Amino acid sequence: MKQKVVIKVAMNGNKSRSKVLKIAVGAPGVQSAGFTGKELDQLEVVGEGIDAAVLTSLLRKNVGPSDLISVGSAEKKEEKKEEKKIEILPAASNSYPYQFSAPYYPIQPYPVEYTNHTDPCSIM
After folding, report:
1. Across the strands, what pairs with 35?
2. What is the spatial distance between Cα 28 and Cα 51, in angstroms, rounded to a whole number?
3. Confidence of residue 70 (pLDDT cuts 50, 70, 90)
4. Sign of the torsion formed by the C-alpha atoms of 27, 31, 34 and 37
């Protein structure tokens, strides 16, 4: 039976990502490996007879902090979802199309003071 193992690994860049994949694919029983999660910081490994504890400890030794998130079967569950149909009604014959325009923001004038410098010192 195929099992799916998810491990969260702290990675710094592309070099550590490739190192994680090399370690994961090199483990016995692994058929596929890839990154998942919002920040692509979780390693998802699918295969038969994977020892999740050994794989996690290998990642801790060679890459950095690793946490075992889940171990379960990799069989896909089939769920039937009902599709919602959207009906498009014809437009009324006496309706006008919407007119879109950019919002109007009035320009505020600001006072400008012009002074005539009669001082011989240009610094002040």
Report:
1. 43
2. 8
3. very high
4. negative
Task: Give buried/exposed letters for 20-55 (b at 16+ CB in 10 A, else e).
Answer: beebbeebeebeebeeeeeeeebbbbbbeebebeeb
Say how many residues make up the chain: 124
Residue 35 has pLDDT above 80, yes or no: yes
Gap between the Cα atoms of 87 and 75, Å rounded: 36
pLDDT of residue 82: 64
Look at the alpha carbons of 73, 55, 36, 66 in this order and tell me if their dihedral is positive or negative. Answer: positive
Maximum alpha-carbon separation in the chain: 93
**What average pLDDT does this structure show over 62-86?**
78
